């Protein structure tokens, strides 16, 4: 033990013996009394005439006292057992009363030692608690200082950016953001100017202010990020321009117009909200089809245009628990994964896996289809997330392909490949391939980027992976500030990936694929909450690429848009495409359609 360690406890804790001088004197006096009484009570020649025997007894008794001191020091001397044996031999011929008297003294001594030991143990425990409390205070203060430093750096950066904007009317696009752009916008002018993102708003809005701000608007042209093979179809080109991150001094105002509320639309809390991915003209009425799930195990279909409930598939047709997650495997087929069952004595013996819901007909009144249960179950502890996987594998008139990815509670990720020869047939599983993504905890988020052929994954281990599907290797791995709840791709710029985190503030991290390492996180933003945001609160991105909407953990507020009447948490939010409508689900089993109006390029001023 070092000097620093010894200064923590009082010196008496390290004393050579816990016996005081009085205790030693008591031992000598007891031995003397034993000698005198022995001489008077039993005047045998052995005890009275042999002075050498008594001297030997004194020496051995003195050795016992010294040996007891060494025992209090917790020494490992090999002579301990010998001295105890010698002392035991001294009392073999002694009277019972004397042995009991000495035993009583030893018991009192042992009680004093136990009391002293308990005192110092309690003192050590109190000191440990004090050390832990001080360490927690240091951790909190360190985090506060770090946050203040980051806020100061952010403020200084914004001031510097504002000064540059005062000097330069329209800054050129940063060279770092030009790399690996799947779609580039070129301007006919010699100097490439900044082009704003395509905005959604009222048709009657006057565009004169925008025309004055842009001297020569660039003409966007599109190109594919990589050529498609013969067996793959090219992804649909998206017209977009580069969006400078967190540099605009104006904003779009989303103004509330009306709301349609469906009270008690679910028997239990809703879990998922999904809009269809069908192209126009695929099947009548399927373009307005919307799907929800709830904790009672039901799967419900809704008409987004009429805001009416169409049909519910009950729990008995799907799983014994509820639906943990779902996705579109094809424009007319849903893939569902059940809630995982924990290992233990109450474990469900049924090995439930992915189920497929084939939608055969949709009209204004109902939905017709059938349910298919797959047999394969690659995850050992159940599934936690399922996501669409559109690799561009072309379906023909004779064969239809379907793909999706699943993440599990066993930290693994699998790619499923299915096919069928007739739309009226069930899918057969061609393969279930393991992806070598090294998560150390439950996989919670999956997102496939068809433009770069990458799969982005996140988990409760706070790790964010970018996995190249062609090379079958991890190309990027980041440790984020919290558990990764969801991953979304920017619909206007496929290079940008938005991650939602389970934190109390700055719940969103914007990842740019063209950057490397920690520099790939271009922006952190969010709102303040009293506790970490739940995994089941899912955000959504507007098609303009810069408007994010998300529910709250502790109130009935939809952040970045509107307040919803009531006190229930907002669990799911989704923008309906091609219309100014926002749909939200609450923990009070309410479904709300919110109509809004966009007022672009607005400047907020304080009075």
Please provide a written account of the structure.
The chain is an alpha+beta fold. Among the domains are: 3-120, no CATH class; 267-435, 7 Propeller (Methylamine Dehydrogenase, Chain H). Helices cover 23% and strands 29% of the residues. It is built from seven helices and 28 strands. The strands form eight sheets. The protein has a four-stranded antiparallel beta sheet with strand order 3-28-27-26, with no helix packed on it. A four-stranded antiparallel beta sheet has the order 4-5-6-7, with no helix packed on it. The longest helix has 72 residues, at 96-167. The two termini are 67 Å apart. Residues 1-51, 60-70, 167-235, 342-347 and 561-565 have low confidence and may be disordered.
What's the short version?
This protein has 607 residues and is α+β, with helices and mostly antiparallel strands.
Write the layout of secondary structure elements.
Layout: H1 3-6, H2 21-41, H3 45-48, H4 51-72, H5 80-90, H6 96-167, E1 185-186, H7 208-213, E2 219-220, E3 251-262, E4 270-275, E5 289-294, E6 299-303, E7 308-313, E8 323-330, E9 333-338, E10 355-362, E11 367-373, E12 383-388, E13 400-408, E14 413-420, E15 428-435, E16 443-449, E17 454-459, E18 463-468, E19 473-479, E20 483-489, E21 496-502, E22 508-512, E23 521-525, E24 540-541, E25 548-549, E26 570-576, E27 581-586, E28 591-602
Antiparallel strand pairs: 1-2, 3-28, 4-5, 5-6, 6-7, 8-9, 9-10, 10-11, 12-13, 13-14, 14-15, 16-17, 17-18, 18-19, 20-21, 21-22, 22-23, 24-25, 26-27, 27-28
Helix pairs in contact: 2-4, 4-5
